[in-house]
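explain this.
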Amino acid sequence: MTPDELKKRIPASELEMITSRSSGPGGQNVNKVNTKVEIRFNVKDSPFLSDAEKDLIFSRLKNRISASGIISVRSQSGRSQARNRELASERLFAILAESLSTEPERIPSRPTRSSVEKRLGEKRKRADLKKTRKTSRKVHDN
């Protein structure tokens, strides 16, 4: 699932936005305007996600989700509140989409002929190197 698909499924009314004063760039603007944005999304109570999707999100994002089932993302890198809101929502949907995506199962394949030949060639070189290190045994006549 892509972030854009999630953005279409989950309406903006489901996202709680909290603004506060940022410590990022913006000069004097930082001291008087609430540019930092925190977006919270309640995964546990969302009617727009199936139970299977919720379980997958909880299992993969257990360190990011609070005990009450809320995932939170902050942004303060932009100079304006609108830009930070956009950045935070993009990050939230990207995180959710990544947790919902499944990797295709790997189909095992045989090694290529060239990789086998390369491995055996390196093995022969190593064996030859070790042979040159051996010293011939001297027979002591007493």
Observations:
- The first helix runs from residue 3 to 9.
- Residues 3-100 form a domain with the Double Stranded RNA Binding Domain fold (CATH 3.30.160.20).
